[in-house]
Amino acid sequence: MDQKSRYLGKWSYNWEGPFVVEQAYSKNAYVIKEINLNIGKVMNGKYLKHFHNRAE
């Protein structure tokens, strides 16, 4: 899970996905992981957004 690029600073994306919610805990905590990696990260639900497909 790559974090911000130092070159672009605050203008870079915070996280790049896609991610899969692996497990949901109580109190709005989720374990997410990238599709191509097996490393999970615990995130608060307030930082997550729903995925919407773009109409092409």
Overview of the molecule:
This protein is 0% helix and 32% strand. The protein contains no helices and 3 strands. With 56 residues, it is mainly beta. The model has no long low-confidence stretch (mean pLDDT 81).
The coarse silhouette is globular
Helical residues, percent: under 10%
What assembly state would you assign to the polypeptide chains in this entry? single chain
Radius of gyration: 13 Å
Task: Give the rounded overall mean pLDDT.
Answer: 81
Note the total helix count. 0
The poorly predicted ranges are: none
Strand order of the largest sheet: 1-2-3
Question: What is the helix/strand order?
Answer: EEE
By secondary-structure content and strand pairing, the structural class works out as mainly beta
How many DSSP E strands?
3
Strand content: 25-35%
Task: Using brief descriptors, characterize the structure shown.
56 residues; mainly beta; three-stranded antiparallel beta sheet; 3 strands
Itemize the secondary structure elements and their pairings.
Blueprint: E1 19-25, E2 29-34, E3 40-44
Antiparallel strand pairs: 1-2, 2-3
Put the structure in a nutshell.
The protein is mostly beta strands and 56 residues long. The chain has no helices and three strands. β2 and β3 form a beta hairpin.
